[in-house]
Amino acid sequence: MQFLLICLLFITTTSFADDSTKQATDIITEMEKLYRGNASRSTLTMTIQTPNFERHLTMTGESMGQDYGFFRILSPKKDRGIATLKREKEMWNYFPKINKVIKVPPSMMTGSWMGSDFTNDDLLRESELVEAYDLELEETDTQYVIMLTPREDTVTVWGKIEYVVDKKEMLPLSQTFYNERGVKIRVMKFGEITQFEGVRLPSSITVTPLNKQGHSTAIVYDNLDFDPDNISEQTFTLRNLKSRF
Amino acid sequence: MMLFKLAFRNILRQRRRSLLTGLTIVGGFVLCTFTFSLVEGAWGNAVDFYTLDSIGHIQVHWADYERKPKVHKTINDRRLVEQTFSANDDVQAFAPRVYSPALAYAGTKTIPVTVIGVDPDLEAKVSRLKEKTKIGQYYNNAHMRTAMIGAGIAKSLAIDVGDEIALISQGADGSIANDLYPVTAIVGNKSSTDSRVVYLSLTTAQEFLSLGESVHEYVLLVRAPNDNEVVAKALETALHLKIPEITVSPWQVIDETFYRTMQSDKRANRFILGILIFIIFIGVLNTVLMSVLERTREFGVIRAIGSRPSTIVQLIFIETMMLTTLCLLVSIILLVPILAWLVNVGFSLPEPVDLGGMTFSQIRGGVTPLALLAPVAYIYSFTVLVTILPAIRAASVTPKTAMGSH
Amino acid sequence: MLFLKLAWRNLFRNTRRTLLTVMLISCSLAALIITDGTVVGLVEMMENTITRTLTGEGQIHHKNFMDDFDSDLMINNPDSVIDAIKANSDVMAYAPRIMIGGMIASSYNMTGGLIYGVHPERELNVSRIKDALIAGEYLSGTDLQILMGKGMAELLDVTLQDRIVVTVAQIGTGETRQELFRLSGILEFGSREMDERFAFINLATAQRLVATEDGVHQIVVRFHDPALAKNREHSLYKSLTHGDIEAMSWLDFNPSISSVIQISNFVTVILGVVLFFIASLGVINSLFMSIYERIHEFGIAKAVGTTPGNIIQLVMLEALIIAVVSCILGGILGYLSSSWFSVHGLPIGEFEVSGIAIDGSIKTKVLAQQFILFPAYIVLLTLAAALYPALFASRIVPAVALQRSL
């Protein structure tokens, strides 16, 4: 849900006073606070591309704050009903065909989620961007470019992360992940800005690992509803995981 | 011709000496062959034991599947590949397999396992899977949608025959493979190499992993295990004509570690064998030398009545050869029952030894060309070598000195 | 005394034969010494590799830990266990460890692996982690340090100082916890399994990572005398196995290797027995020959009143002298060659056990018992071999004997 968070970081049209680091930090913090406590419901299509196959999944997603998430596959038919529940730091998968709920063991945690280029970890990890990274803001006519450099003790494999934000729309354009030697390893691109329930957001997010030829995962939001009704803590239970829908 | 008659008569005449000399040579032959057979047998046993368990003599994969297994690296044109196997007379049997890492779940526990899809009938001809099925029943048809699990899994998940096991993995098309299978057998024991394996029938595994008809591996047995590397090369050449990406590997490459360990052990044994042969050499040397040198006086007499030195040399040589050949014949008669025992019954280990789920309790000998011919070559060459010097000496010494000696 | 003089002189009457016999017996003794030295050296080297690379001569852990390596099963109060270990005078060194499976990630890739939390100084005495280092530096107790096998480093495409994130599930809660490391060293054990799946961090870091105060999963011990490790009834094992804790010898947690060693041992014992046979054949041969030659003489001796008993004594004394002289010579020869090999190693090329190459080559072991036990056997053997000839000599009927000419 990091990507979801990132999207929402830049929702407001609060203008940036100037390009000092402190400003950038403040804004991100504001955004995070804004996001916390929000609930959302969405339907999306995920397209996974590898040299050996191409997969299209449609899913529903529900979230509450940073700690709770629920995703369910609608198609293809073979995988319909497979669901993932995240509660704080734990994760479960449900397989309707065999009617089993299986807790995701740590050995699978950093593995790919549902076979995509996103990892279970991406979905689980709390954003600690402000506390754990140093921010640097640069500006061009059309873009804000924020460089995030992890502190010495930040638990991450990345050397730096480059956020590019569209100045006019105040929406993210891309995130690029570098290793410590300055080599681009992974790129997340945001596009297709769409109006959802009074909020303008990029509806497509594509992750491309640059070290694996021919791999990419693209998510396109068909619907996105913030503060929907009937989402509560009950939505994020094991019982709900197994329920009919 | 006369020399031959003379030689033969000499042997018979000096019965006791011939007997004693012969005793050592027979002893040398028998013990040498016995030890060679034992060492070759131990080696052959170990290799057989290992290869027939599950690795086979030759394995066939797609590209670098063996080093870097990925579910999508499959052999697709099965008919062509299998035809090539059948066309080669050296291939005794082959069996296809499918592999995938997976999560197994039962009760509340999840453990990582390896799923292997096998064709039950073909598999039984290339490995010991059927024999290792201790509890429950081996597949009796190729399409059963049931699982045979390793003993380690049975213990970790606390399940038994009759329970169900859930498997989660990723299909070759990226889909999430998930299914539930009844357990119909438990294979091997906790220390077997497959204690963390879930076996499914080939078609079931292919369905589970969305593989269609493709497979990851073929395991082959060849008629002459010692020639497996040659056969592998031949198969690779034949297959590369149509499918250049296929890799054919003899077991020595598949499990290089085991091969190198065995080679090391073999070399150490050869060293000890070398010492043994040296002692046999000295024994033969001792005997033959003594018996020739002690007849110096006798040869002196023959020289005195006019025989040429060369005749003496020839005589001694022929005598020794004849004696050795006689000894060889006697040895063969003795060796037949001895080798028969060694190869079929062998030595019992003081305690049966458990290797990867199979119990080893006998060390058996092997009958290989090396084991049978090397001793013969050694003994003959020893006797020849040993005869040369004293023969020359006996021939060149003057009759006077000869007859004066003891 | 008279007999002794006689025996001695008799031997020199046919110096050549005596010398040949002595040569045979002394070489046999030397061969036995070298063979035994080789076998012992070989076994020791194999065992040493198995136990001293990583898994240790003895281990103490939770009694069910070995089943699944379930990281929840710890030794929670290692202090009392460690006190008991220190109190046992046979123990040379010990090292506590954490063992936990988890994911190891770099910016390029991620893989599952086994993470060992080790105490760097203590490990130096029980395992070869430091010796396996091919790049970077050994652990020194600082956080952030991680060592991994060459295979893993290649998989993750990392070089020294790159960021590594380790994810594990904490003890008890099962919550995941991640920590940052920087690759501080790369190891090559030689075994593909170890080089692709193992990583090492400092013990304190590991304990914090898995959320335990001072619990450990295993304590590895090394004994002053490796042979003690193999004694399953050793006081250390017995005293520490109670309640939830289990202490066992490597024979029990590494059973497959000990099986291979047992088999190897057995084969070589057989070879030794064969050696004995050959030597005895040579001795019998030699003694019989000497008696037959002297039948005439024995006949005379008996005719003038020598008792059969005396003759037996005489022959046995001759055999004894030969035996003793041979043992001295053989002992010296054996000592010199075995010592040379114990320093320079056997000429059998590189030796590997389960992928781990032995340091240098196999060295023979020179042991006191080889120079006491084996000569004793040889002397007894020679005397035994001399019995029948001696009896035969004593039973010579003068009348018949005196008729014999050469």
Q: What would you say about this model in short?
A:
The complex is a heterotrimer of chains A (245), B (406) and C (406). With 245 residues, chain A is α+β, with helices and mostly antiparallel strands.
List keywords for this structure.
heterotrimer; A: 245 residues; alpha+beta; 6 helices; disordered N terminus; B: 406 residues; 6-stranded mixed beta barrel; two-stranded antiparallel ribbon; 12 strands; elongated
Written overview of the protein:
The complex is a heterotrimer of chains A (245), B (406) and C (406). With 245 residues, chain A is α+β, with helices and mostly antiparallel strands. In chain A, 17% of the residues lie in helices and 45% in strands. Chain A has helices at 2-9, 21-35, 106-109, 120-124, 129-132, 238-242, and strands at residues 39-49, 54-64, 68-75, 83-87, 90-95, 100-103, 133-139, 143-150, 160-166, 171-178, 184-196, 199-209, 216-226. Chain A has a 13-stranded antiparallel sheet. In chain A, a hairpin with a 3-residue loop joins strand 7 and strand 8. The longest helix of chain A has 15 residues, at 21-35. In chain B, the strands form two sheets. Chain B has a six-stranded mixed β-barrel with strand order 2-3-8-5-7-6, surrounded by four helices. Chain B folds into two domains: 2-51 and 259-403, no CATH class; 64-244, no CATH class. Chain B is of the alpha+beta class and 406 residues long. In chain B, 45% of the residues are buried. In chain B, helix 2 packs antiparallel against helix 12 (369-396). Chain C folds into two domains: 2-49 and 262-401, no CATH class; 57-249, no CATH class. Chain C has 16 helices and twelve strands. Chain C has helices at 2-13, 15-55, 65-68, 78-87, 120-126, 150-156, 192-197, 203-209, 226-229, 235-240, 250-253, 255-293, 295-303, 308-344, 368-394, 398-403, and strands at 58-62, 91-105, 110-118, 133-136, 145-149, 163-169, 176-187, 198-202, 218-223, 245-249, 352-353, 356-357. In chain C, the strands form two sheets. Chain C has a six-stranded mixed β-barrel, surrounded by four helices. In chain C, strands 11-12 form a two-stranded antiparallel ribbon. Chain C starts with a helix and ends with a helix. The chains are: A alpha+beta (245), B alpha+beta (406), C alpha+beta (406). Chains in contact: A-B, A-C, B-C. At the A-B interface, strand 6 of A face strand 6 and strand 7 of B.
